[in-house]
Amino acid sequence: MLNRALLAAAAVALATGCTAQAVGAGGPSSPTAAAGPSSPSASQAGTSATPDGATDGKPPSEPSSESPSPTATAESSPSARGRVLMAEGTETEQVRELQARLRQIGHFHRSPTAFYGSMTAGAVSSFQKKRELPATGKVDETTWGQLTAMTRKPTDGELKPPTSNELDKPDARCMTGRVLCISKESRTLAWMVDGKVVSAMDVRFGSENTPTREGTFKVDRKERTWESTIYHTPMPYAMFFSGGQAVHYSADFAARGYNGASHGCVNVRDKGRIAALFDQVKAGDKVVVHW
């Protein structure tokens, strides 16, 4: 009987200890504190969690100052102040406008392509450094706002220019009359009338062994279809200006670009543009080949 009474007392003591731990007392407490009527349960305590999820006695509609609302977080975060609009890999018409605007102020030196590659990222970074912005190479709202504020809306010609290369400032000899103004520096041909560019196109020149001559010339003759008598290659839309050297369409230039060279002629790769130019140029018009 004595052993049975001792076992019963031990069982009561153990049960009382588990109940106190579950309430969250943090350690052993007296039986009176654990089981007495004066100890409130978790659902009755004013400062403990309620079924609605409020804490510290505040209703859900009054969040703690340590836990800002989603709206407040979005308004104060850097991403909201400078959301990224364009970055490497983006291909949109807005990228084309970005490139045209950067080109207006000398940060981008090629024709707009609408594709945001490493060259565009470098141009954006250059602009950002100039404006004392973080040079991320990405266009955020702040960068775009500053760029649009200091540039104008690009024209159609700026968005889709006729040449891949940027036209040079015209040589002084090109500013009067009807002139084929050809720049070796920019690798472009500008058809100019009274100092204004009428049309332009990319061109390619001769190699070191067969260089294109520089100077001021005149169009001697025109041949819509022609084949070189020396190299036996087609020279359509040929406009001869210095012996056997001529401005003409080159299928090789169209296919290989600047990986090849001419035998001294001025190659044009845009067949449509050279065809239109051929119809406008007259024998006797000036040709200027310069650096």
Largest sheet: 9 strands, mixed
Q: Helix share of residues?
A: 25-40%
Multimeric state: single chain
Shape: elongated
Radius of gyration based on Cα positions = 40 Å
Strand and helix order: HHHHEHHEHHEEEEEEEHEHE
Distance between the termini: 119 Å
Q: Indicate the low-confidence ranges by residue numbers.
A: 1-77
- Give the amount of beta strand, in percent: 15-25%
Number of distinct beta strands: 11
Q: What is the mean predicted local confidence, pLDDT?
A: 78
The neighbouring-strand order within the major sheet is: 6-11-3-4-5-10-9-8-7
Count of helices? 10
Provide a descriptive summary of the structure in words.
The protein is elongated, with a radius of gyration of 40 Å. The protein has helices at residues 2-23, 31-35, 70-76, 78-81, 93-104, 118-130, 141-149, 156-159, 251-256, 271-280, and strands spanning 84-86, 139-140, 178-183, 188-193, 196-204, 215-218, 221-223, 238-242, 245-249, 266-268, 286-290. The protein has a nine-stranded mixed sheet with strand order 6-11-3-4-5-10-9-8-7. A two-stranded antiparallel sheet has the order 1-2. Residues 1-77 have low confidence and may be disordered. The protein is an alpha+beta fold and 291 residues long. β4 (188-193) and β5 (196-204) form a beta hairpin. The chain has ten helices and eleven strands.
